[in-house]
Amino acid sequence: MSIVLRNLTKRFGNTLVVNDVCLQVLDGELFVLLGGSGSGKSTLLRLIAGLLEPDEGHIELDGQDVTDWPTQARGVGFVFQNYSIFRHMTAAENIEFGLRIRHVPKEERKKRVEELLELVGLTGLGTRYADQLSGGQQQRVALARALAYQPAVLLLDEPFGALDVKIRAQMRQSLKEIQRRLKITTILVTHDQEEAFELADRIGVIDRGRLIEVGSPEDLYHRPQTEFVAAFLGSGNVLVGRALDQKIQLGAVTLPFPADAPDHDEGAPVRVLFRPESVVLQPEPFPPNSGLHVLGQGEVVERVFVGSLQRLRLEVEGLGGVRPVAPPRAYGQRTTPIEAVQPSEAQPVCLFTPGQKLWIGIRRYHILEPTGLKILICTDGSPAGEAAVEYGCLLAQAARGPATLLAVASCKASSSAMRDHLEGLHQRWQARLPRLETRLRQGDSTIEAILSEVEAEPYELVILGRSAKSTVDLDRLGRPLLERALLPVLLIVEPRPLKKILICTAAGEPGKAAVRFGGRLARHIGAFVTVLHVHRFQETPEERARVERHLCQAQASLEALGITSAVKIAEEPALERILREAHLGDYDLIILGAPSPSIRPPVSGPDLATQIVRGTTRPVLVVPMAE
Fold first, then answer.
1. Taking CA 588 as the corner, what is the angle to CA 585 and CA 593, rounded to the nearest 5 degrees?
2. pLDDT average, residue stretch 415-420
3. How does pLDDT run across 302-337, given as a tens digit for each residue?
4. Residues contacting 220, CB < 8 A, separation 6+
5. 135-147 helix and 165-182 helix, angle to the nearest 10 degrees
6. Are β-strands 589-594 and 500-504 bridged in parallel, bridged antiparallel, or unpaired?
7. What's the pLDDT at 366?
């Protein structure tokens, strides 16, 4: 029986748990939903089983829409993680239970129970109660009970999560054999990647309710399309270089585009994935005919022994201008981290040691689908909204990323006007932004509509227009986005060129967040960056030393991305100094870090970010610190 999900959506209160999921599971397929805790995978399984009702979308089983059908009419067997077998019944009685309530004749029930006990490897144990069975045996009873009435679909929710490693491996093998023998369409939910790789015909990776990517285990591991899957599955090295003269530029290293690589425009970011087991290490330089792609020389900084393998982390110089996505570069780190896996041999010469210098080659690599900064641009048709569109579209063009124009309408009449407005903007910018989309949301609350949009899509930046006379835009719209969605917010009065950025930073995590995001933005648009710190009058020598370290690390982080930068230190008062520097330097963008709401101290009156927004007509970007 095939399973088809069409635009399936589920909310719990204001939380979007399953987000517009579309999926087709083939007849007889063993499909694995893989994701972390809270990703929505178990909720999706319960929607298919009929244990929950979807808010939107449809569920089809064998071509029939069963969205409104009760659970018992769907022909679905369900196995939970916690076994859920009746402790006052024997194993045989547990298996027989579903048949008995369906009024199956006694002799037929007995025959079916014996067949199932043999199928799951419990022959002769039918008279035992739960407390006389091991955890693995109890789970086998639960599986047999789910199969008793011959369901067309089998759903398993983390079925082996409570078992120890050895029993879990045995149960996986048993499940695979049973599923193949019965040819029953099966969906298994797990967070265990090894389990997913071993069992699945295909895997669907889910995150925050969104089905990110679907494919065979081999394709998702070796040839993923998305950055998330590349970093999530196994461990991988993902480096972002640039397309240059039909090749890939990774600092001083040039790589050819593989034949199956997606097209990239000249100068566009190129994300290169290579797995740790594809890395080759040796103390001497590789000969020209080695057949390897040489990244250069690196130093071993960490070695972890894991039995048959040793995991190594190296730091490589000479890859300036490269942004490492995975593993990430530490704040202030100039070198590029690389992970490698090597066989663990008995001979000491094969056991690499920290501090050792090694040449690094890679056997093969994969190019991910091109992407860029995903931007949401909010417009209301006002001059401020028009400025946000102008600036946002130019930024999206420079960043080569997808952009969405969002308008919010409170009534039917305004919906028609806003739809025409969005259509006009789309026609105006489509030639320069082929990945531009438009979205119209209805509601009385603009901020709630924007929050619903950013919950549904993985935006990385929100752009809002504001009037030069407005004093509430940051608090009314920006603050909820910063605190509830943890998204950077860019406030625009009038568009400006994208050439000079002023990052105002303090020596702490909010300052690091501003430098990291500002650096990424500057790398996309090729801007010059100045990092400014304003000293407090009564800073101690220790505090000043910490500030100097922070600024050195900030400049190192920017230089590692290939960004030209400078550092400035000024004295209080902070507001006047920042505004003065922005004016005298004629900066096109001011970037500030915002502390997490959970650690932000209470203040009387507006905070610094609000005061800066009120004190300038220049674009201001506020970057939240991740929790």
1. 95
2. 90
3. 999 888 889 999 999 888 889 999 999 998 898 999
4. 203, 205, 213, 229, 233
5. 20
6. parallel
7. 96
**474 Cβ partners below 8 Å, 6+ apart?**
466, 489, 491, 609, 610, 613, 622
Question: What average pLDDT score do residues 376-401 get?
Answer: 91
**Which residues have C-beta within 8 Å of that of residue 562, sequence separation ≥ 6?**
320, 321, 322, 523
Rounded to a whole number of angstroms, the CA Rg of the chain reads 29
Looking at residue 466, what is its pLDDT?
A: 84
Calpha distance 108→97 (Å, rounded): 13
The torsion defined by the Cα of 324, 327, 330 and 336, in degrees rounded to 10, comes to: -50
What is the DSSP secondary structure assignment for residue 130, as one 8-state letter?
G
Q: How far apart are CA 393 and CA 402, in angstroms?
A: 10
pLDDT in tens, 485-515: 889 999 998 888 889 999 998 777 778 999 9
- Count other Cβ atoms within 10 Å, centred on residue 585: 15
Nearest CA among 591, 596, 582, 588 for reference residue 626: 596
Q: d(Cα 606, Cα 177) in Å, to the nearest integer?
A: 65
Summarize pLDDT for 193-218 with one digit per residue, the tens. 999 999 999 999 999 999 999 999 99
Q: What sign results for the dihedral spanned by CA atoms 491, 496, 499, 505?
A: negative
CB-CB contact of 621 with 487 (8 Å) = no
* Token duo for residue 143: 């599986």
Report DSSP letters for 29-62, one per residue.
Answer: -EEEEE--TTSSHHHHHHHHHTSS--SEEEEEET
pTM: 0.85
Within 10 Å of residue 414's Cβ, how many Cβ atoms? 17
Chain centre to alpha carbon of residue 527: 27
Distance linking the first and last C-alpha atoms of the chain: 43
